[in-house]
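ok trying this again, last paste got cut off
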Amino acid sequence: MRKVGMFLAPLVFVITLTSQLFGGTLAGVTLPDTVQVGGRTLVLNGLGLRKKYMVKVYVAGLYLEQKSSDPSAIFKTDVPKRIVMHFVRSVSKNQIVDAFNESFQDNTPDAKQTMKAEIDQFLSAFDSVKDGDEILLTYIPGTGTTVAINSKERVTISTPAFASVLFSVWLGPKPPSSELKAGLLGR
C-alpha cells in the first residue's frame, strides 16, 4: 500500500502542475490560463462556445487583468483585455463580416453611424479562417484595439471607444447566445 502512495504522490503533483498551465478546455479547445498583453499578465476570465444552428463555430476566451462577471465594469475599465476566437470549423470572410455586422447592429446600433470608419477598418482585416485558426482581438490603453489572425497583426484601431463596441459583441445585451456570454463571464 505504501508503494502505491509513493507512486500516486508524484503523479498527483504532476497533474496539479500541468492543470495550472491551462486555463480551461471547452469543445476540445484548451486555452492558457494567462497571456501577456502590453507588458501585463491577463488571466482567463471564462470560456464560451459559439454555435450557429447547433453547429460549433468557435470557442471564445475572455482575458482580463482581474476576473469579473460584470459586463459594465469590463466595458468601462480602461485596461488591457483580449478575446480569443479559436475556430473549430472553417468560416468564410463573408460569414465573419456578416456576424460582426449583425452583432454591432444588435448591441451598439448607434456605432454603425458614429464609428463607421473604425468598423469598416476592423472588418477589412478579416479573411476566411479554417479549423484551428485563432483570431485575437486585443485592447491596450494608449494603443487601441488590434486584430491578429494566427498571431499575425492585421490592423489596430486607435479609437479607445471602439473597444467597448467590439467587446459588446459578446458581452452586450444581445450576444450570439446567452450561454456564450455566461461562459466568458465565468458563470
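PB: full thing came through this time. The longest strand covers residues 40-52.
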